[in-house]
Amino acid sequence: MAENSAFEEGLVIAGHGRHVWVETPDGRRLICHPRGKKNQTVVGDHVLWQATQDEGTIEKVLPRRNLFYRQDEIRTKLFAANIDQVLILIAAEPEFSESQLTRALIAAQAEKIQAIIVLNKQDLSQLFERAWERLGPYRAMGYNVLPMALKPREKAIEDPTENTTALFLNENQPNLEEELKGKTSLILGPSGAGKSTLINRLVPQALVLTQEISTALNSGKHTTTSTTLYWQDASKKTALIDSPGFQEFGLNHIDPMHLAGLMPDIKAHAGACKFYNCSHLHEPGCGVLAALKNEASENSITAHRYKIYCDLFAELSQSRY
Question: In the chain, where are the structural domains located?
């Protein structure tokens, strides 16, 4: 069916329930509602919409190049579409869950989306050093891991004697901003990691925009259940997508036999297995089990990482029955 000439193209920049905010190429923004009972749109979607009085109806979601989401036994949570990378923000305190970090990395790998790990609260030296050491295997796997010291802007007012040049982001800020430049990045992380502070630091007008979007979508002052896209530059080449904090990250959409291929340290040794359909749990001639025993090797697998693999394999296998 040919596209209706009355349809206009737009970008979904915020959503709450069945309402979404769509931005047109010329910068107009309006509330749109999906046609039909099911809302299949997600922030980052390019859509065709049609005007209905002062609002609009989404007629079609254009093809996506990727979709980042999590899935448990009850529901599927869509985060964003058409993104270039996922920035996973964790902190030295509260202590981050390595299992949740791994799950987010697996979800990104499954969609062939680049991932960056940012560890916040570098100012808590002892806790940070311990957390940084825990991330050693991820640096060894080739993940880009950046340190950071973020504090809310209010701290500068309370204590003006602090070194404000290092107050928000440390000397690694240029590196992070360079990683973000010209890309659409989903900012992901558990509650308490400093995600909102990071967004407000990188996009000073974010709070104003959030309130504007909340008013438009009638979602109240708090948008913890919403996802919002912010442009970081006037040319609209760099976008940050703020997502709700999470404590659980289901991977029910991942086949357990594909799990090893989505974990770089496991994948590095899976090709040495005797059997092509090796589960890497008990089979003879398993390259993964051999690497696990040889902890002195350069590309060894840590016992903790292997336990995460085993636990996930069991969880994903059980979810299919």
Answer: 8-61, 67-242, 256-318
**In CATH, 256-318 is 1.10.40.50:** yes
pLDDT reported for residue 168 = 47
Question: Residues 207, 242: contact at Cβ < 8 Å?
Answer: no
Least confident of 110-114, 153-157, 188-192: 153-157
Least Cα distance to 70 among 207, 247, 221 occurs for 247
Decide if 44 contacts 20 (C-beta within 8 A).
no
What burial class does residue 296 get, using C-beta atoms within 10 Å of its C-beta: 0-12 exposed, 13-18 middle, 19+ buried?
exposed
Give me the residues paired with residue 76 across strands: 71
Cis check: omega of the bond before 147, within 30 degrees of 0: no
Please provide the CATH number assigned to the domain covering 8-61: 2.40.50.140
The residue count for the chain:
321
Which among 171, 194, 175, 180 has a CA at the least distance from the CA of 121? 194
Cα torsion 62, 65, 69, 74 to 10°: value is 50
Token digits of residue 13: 């920049």
User: CB neighbours of 189 closer than 8 A, spacing ≥ 6?
Assistant: 88, 89, 90, 195, 245
CATH annotation of 67-242: 3.40.50.300
| Whether the predicted model's global pTM rises above the 0.85 cut | yes
Structure-token pair, residue 298: 């350069």
5 pLDDT band, cuts 50/70/90, is low
CA distances from 248 to 191, 199, 212, 255 (A): 11, 22, 29, 19
